[in-house]
Amino acid sequence: MKNLKFKKRSLALLFTAATIFTSCGGKKTKAEATTKVVETSETIKVGILHSLSGTMAISETSLRDVVLMAIDEINESGGVLGKQLEPVVVDPASDWDLFAEKAKELLTKDKVDVTFGCWTSVSRKSVLPVYEEYKGLLFYPVQYEGQEQSPNIIYTGATPNQQLIPAAEYLMSEDGGSYKKFYLIGTDYVFPRTANKILKNYLLAQGVPSENIIEEYTPFHHQDYQTIVSKIKRFASSGDACVLSTINGDSNVPFYKEFANQGLSSTTCPIMAFSVAEDELRAMDTEFLAGHLAAWNYYESIKSTENYKFVEKFKNYCEKKGLPGGKDRVTDDPIHWSYAGVYLYKAAIEKAQSTDVDKVIEALAGLTLDAPGGIVQMHESNHHLSKPVLIGEIRADGQFDIISKSEGLVVPEPFSKYAK
């Protein structure tokens, strides 16, 4: 198995009381007064804000499913603080303005105690001011570009130093192929553009000439990649090029298909994806994807008893509920962090003995969780998780072989020095 030489980071896992982190304080606002807390409600209301239609449904529907599974598990075991979790599911339909409207409804009309939701950074940025204004709490489960830290958002996905930089490091290493040319392609919105700015600045700092770095963007739901792949093919004719892909949603299907149609493969020009995981691969012809890469912090193929149980539970849940795909469903990184987020919230409100947002945030600081993929820890102050970094290689069956792993947990750095 290949090893990636990451800089060693030491992290002492704290299983005792967490250091207090105060993110909000002072006099209660009118918005805060409207927020419902467990002491005055019969249930703990959980908002689920994921696209169940539109271009992002290919990725987000499974996040709704796993959050509902976690809620069912917790309720069957007696709930939290003697109360049942009550899900409130809405569909913002891949419409970024609608995300903000639905978030406001969840907070002011449904009066949810917490929300699990969003995938794209544009949807997260759309709802961020809503959660800050109404003092709500959002768990965001997807890797992102960083450069953000809201007192009302818990980021369980990866920061740039937990995904983007390690992926580029790997491709430049001897084990990763010693690639010297990089084609950066993404969907045209904030995550790909900021991610590629970080990647480009990192590559330049490593001595890669600017002419060896190409950037290109396509809109959401783009379907025709013939011209772009032709350019990639010419760019890769020297034999030392790779692709760093931040394409999101259903556009990945025609992109990879066209890549194979034009005779490109993982041996001639590997694709390192930042938004393609096992769930997306279910909708793709994986026969032609074998050997391409992805950088995540969890894979279904992690070998551990706890992960085997998690995977089996999700498959059984989908079959029992009659969900599309049934027992053939898979787990992946965002699915895993959505599930872990629910249990982090449970642990925090048990520690705080309240669903008051300020008290829950205080309780989350430094909290550790034995998640299906392994032990992780909330940072003491920046609302992100310390976690391992994994490089995976796509198999023909739609799963990943883990070919590289960081030494221990990587501490999150939301604000990248390469974003400047």
Structure in words:
The protein folds into 2 domains: 30-158 and 301-387, Rossmann fold, CATH 3.40.50; 161-297 and 409-419, Rossmann fold. Helices cover 34% and strands 17% of the residues. The protein contains 12 helices and 15 strands. It has a 7-stranded mixed beta sheet, with helices on both faces. α2 (57-76) packs parallel to α11, α3 packs parallel to α4 (121-133) and α11 packs across α12 (357-364). The two termini are 35 Å apart. The model is unreliable at 1-38 (pLDDT under 50).
The CATH class label of the largest domain is: Alpha Beta
Computed over alpha carbons, the radius of gyration is 21 Å
Examine the secondary-structure arrangement and name the CATH architecture of the largest domain.
3-Layer(aba) Sandwich
Strand content: 15-25%
Name the assembly state: single chain
Query: Which structural class do the helices and strands define?
Result: alpha/beta
The CATH superfamily of the largest domain is identified as Response regulator
Tertiary shape: globular
Attribute tags:
single chain, Rossmann fold, seven-stranded mixed sheet, 420 residues, alpha/beta, 17% strand, 2 domains, five-stranded parallel sheet, disordered N terminus
Quick overview:
The protein has helices at residues 30-33, 57-76, 96-108, 121-133, 164-172, 190-205, 226-235, 252-261, 278-281, 305-320, 333-352, 357-364; strands at 44-49, 85-90, 114-117, 138-140, 153-155, 181-187, 213-218, 241-246, 271-273, 293-296, 368-371, 374-378, 385-386, 390-394, 400-405. With 420 residues, the chain is α/β, with parallel strands linked by helices. Strands 7-6-8-9-10-14-15 form a seven-stranded mixed β-sheet, sandwiched between helices.
